């Protein structure tokens, strides 16, 4: 079945990464009802797409998103309660319910403008990389409303409370460097390095066990609202769930490659996934060769001193 042609969203797949572009550059990717419907469907399909390992959310034309399209999302639906409800449901579903609990790692690649409602998808993704000259703005207070939908909540959960109050109450813009400093993004880089930095992060994620990575990101998110007893039970069950559905058999594979084959150091790198280059046991040098090498090194040091 041919893929449905979309007007407001563009998808490109390469090397396990699905690049999902908000595609209204003439509007700085302001989000219309149609864009929300298309994004909701796109993320639904990609979540079970076997060729997609990581999803990157970005904006075409050099703009992440200027927030909601005030004319199309708000004013056009003022006298259409059914249309307004449908658009709001799709907008909240893809920007929060889908992204926040997504089964695959997600990255926001941010440049140009990130304004108002765009903070929902920014905070819902697992990771974010921004151009250092990006303009971030929670400007709703400047035109008479609260930060839309769940923006107040997700901003308060993502950054320090006083910073959340400051930028929500004053509506002042800030750049990518400040966004990294206060915790909205993982990295702020020069614009020319943005794509490469995003790919670098995606490739690191793809080197991990998909089952363990999925469970880990779900666990970190879910335990934030649990007490200690609930967390103990949830994490124990999550650990067991990995072993049941993990095609990599990550636990045993990792132990075997580390303890038996001495093939990797988990402090610095992940174990090799199936289909990747198989690790080989590191051969130990014979005792005689070690002694000879040591003696040779000592002679060189003595010669240098002379």
Following the backbone from N to C, one meets helices and strands in this order, namely EEHEHHEEHEEHHHEHHHHH
- Spatial shape: globular
Mean pLDDT score, rounded? 87
As laid out across the biggest beta sheet, the strand order is 1-2-3-4-6-8
Low-confidence stretches: 278-285
Number of helices: 12
Helix/sheet category: alpha/beta
| Helix content class | 40-55%
Distance between the termini: 79 Å
The total of beta strands comes to 8
Task: Calculate Rg over CA atoms.
Answer: 24 Å
Report strand %: 5-15%
Task: Describe the protein's architecture and organization.
There is one protein chain. The chain has 306 residues and is of the alpha/beta class. It is built from twelve helices and eight strands. Helix 4 packs across helix 5 (151-158).
List its salient traits.
306 residues, two-stranded parallel ribbon, single chain, 12 helices, alpha/beta, 6-stranded mixed β-sheet, 47% helix
């Amino acid at each position: 079945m041919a893929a449905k042609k979309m007007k407001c969203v563009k998808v490109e797949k390469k090397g396990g990464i699905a690049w999902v572009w908000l595609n209204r550059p003439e509007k700085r990717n302001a989000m219309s009802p149609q864009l929300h419907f298309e994004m909701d469907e796109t993320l639904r399909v990609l979540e079970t797409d076997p060729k997609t390992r990581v999803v990157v959310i970005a904006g075409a034309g050099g703009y992440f998103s200027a927030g909601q399209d005030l004319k199309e999302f708000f004013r056009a639906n003022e006298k259409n309660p059914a249309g307004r409800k449908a658009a709001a449901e799709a907008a909240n579903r893809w920007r929060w319910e889908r992204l926040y609990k997504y089964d695959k790692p997600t990255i926001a690649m941010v440049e140009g403008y990130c304004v108002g409602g765009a903070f929902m998808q920014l905070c819902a993704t697992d990771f974010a990389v921004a151009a250092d000259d990006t303009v971030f703005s929670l400007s709703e207070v400047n035109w008479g409303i609260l930060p839309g939908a769940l923006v107040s909540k997700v901003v308060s959960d993502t950054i320090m409370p006083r910073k959340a109050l400051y930028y929500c109450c004053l509506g002042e813009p800030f750049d990518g460097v400040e966004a990294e400093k206060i915790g909205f993004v993982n990295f702020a880089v020069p614009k020319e390095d943005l794509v490469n930095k995003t790919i670098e992060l995606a490739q690191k994620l793809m080197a991990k066990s998909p089952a363990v990575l999925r469970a880990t990101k779900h666990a970190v998110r879910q335990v934030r609202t649990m007490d200690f007893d609930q967390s103990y039970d949830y994490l124990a069950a999550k650990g067991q769930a990995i072993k049941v559905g993990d095609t990599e058999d990550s636990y045993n594979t990792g132990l075997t490659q580390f303890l038996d084959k001495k093939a990797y150091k988990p402090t610095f790198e992940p174990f090799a996934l199936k289909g990747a280059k198989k690790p080989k046991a590191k051969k130990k040098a014979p005792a005689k060769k070690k002694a000879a090498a040591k003696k040779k090194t000592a002679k060189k040091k003595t010669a240098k001193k002379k």
